[in-house]
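Bump. Still looking for MFS transporter C-alpha cells.
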Amino acid sequence: MSIASSTDMARRSVPLPRKPFMLYALTLMTFMAASSVPTPLYRLYQESWGFPPSTLTAIFGAYVLSLLCALLTVGSLSDHVGRKPVLLAALVLEILSVVLFLIAAGPGGLVAARILQGFATGAAMGTLSAGLIDADQARASLFNSLAPLLGLAAGALGCSALVDFAPAPLHLVFLLLLAILTAELVAVILAPETAPRRPGALRSLWPRVHVPAGSRRDLASALPISIAGWALGGLYLSLIPTIVRHVTGSTMALTSGTVVAALASTGAVSILFARPHAPNRIIAVSAAMLALGVTATLAGVLAGSVAIMLAGTVVAGVGFGAGFLGALKTTLSNVSAADRAGLMSALLVVSYVAFSAPVMIAGVAIPIAGLVPTTVAYGTGTILLSLAALAAALRSAFSRRETTQ
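Sorry for the wait, here they are.
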C-alpha cells in the first residue's frame, strides 16, 4: 500500500468537524431578536423619562445608522479573515450593548446602547449569512430569510410577555439575552472555521458597496421588493407601539408586541410556502400581498380597530417575508464564495436605508402633521413602492418570455 493511499485512509477514518450551520442560524436569530426587544419597552422608557415619539425615531435611527456603518466597512471583512474572528468581535460588542441597556438611565443611554448594538448586528449579519452558505448552500436561502424574521417575532413577543407578566421588565429580558449571547460566544470559539483567509482585509474596510459585475442586474431586480418590505418593517419596529396605543388605548405591551410579531411570524411562514417557486414569481405575489396588507392596516388605523390592523399585518407579513426570500434567491443564486458576504452586505445596506430613512422622516413629521396622518402617508409610500416592485417583476417576466420565444 502506498503512502498516499495510507494517508487517504487515515483522513477518511477521522471524522471531519461538522460545519456550524445551526449555530450560525440560531446566532442570526439571536441578533435579530435582540434588535426587536427594545420595541415593547419604548412605552416604559417614555413613561419613565418623558420623551416624545420623535425621540423614539432618533433612538431607532441611531441603531440603523450604526448598522449601516458596519455593513459599509466590515461587511465583507469575513471574506478575507474568516467568519469566526468577525463573528466573535460582533458577539462581544452585542454583549456590551446589552450591558448598556441594563444600566441606561435616560434616552442618551439608549442611544449609546443602540449604536453599539447596530454596529454589532451589521458586522454579524453579512458574516452569518455568508457562513450559512459556506456550511450548506442548499438550505442557506431558506434560513437566511427565515432566521431574521423568526428572531424579530421572538424578540418582540417574548419581551412583550415579560413586560406584562414578569418582574423587572426593563432588566429581565436583557439578563436572558446576556446568558444566550455568552453561550453562543463560547460555541463560536469551539466551532470550525468555514471560510479560508485571503488577501485584501485592510482594503476591504474602506467604505464601499461591493457588487460583482455579474451580480448587478440580479441585485437591481431584487431591490424594489426589498425596499418596500424593509420600509414597512421600520415602521413596525419603531412606531407601532405608539400607533397601537393611540388606536386602542391599551397600555399592555403584549398588544403591540403581537402586532409586530404577526408581521414577522407570518413572513416566516410565507417563506416556507414560497421556497419552491421561482424568484420572479415570488416577488410578484409578494408585492401584491404587501400592497393589499398595508392598505388594510391603514384602514384599521383610521377605523380605530386593532382587529383590522392585525388582519392587514398578517397579509402584509406574507409580502414582507416571501419578498425577502425572493430578493435573496435573486441576488445570491449566482455568486462565488469569495463575494458572498460583500454582496449580502450590499443588499442589506439598501434594505436598511429603506428601514431607517422613512422612520427618521416620520419622526420629524409627527410633531407637525400628527401621528395618524404621518402613518397614513408612510403607509401610502410603502404601497407605491410595492406596486413598483410588482410592475418590475411583471416587466422582467414579460421580457424573459419574449427572449425564450
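Confidence is low (pLDDT under 50) at residues 1-17.

Edit: fixed formatting.
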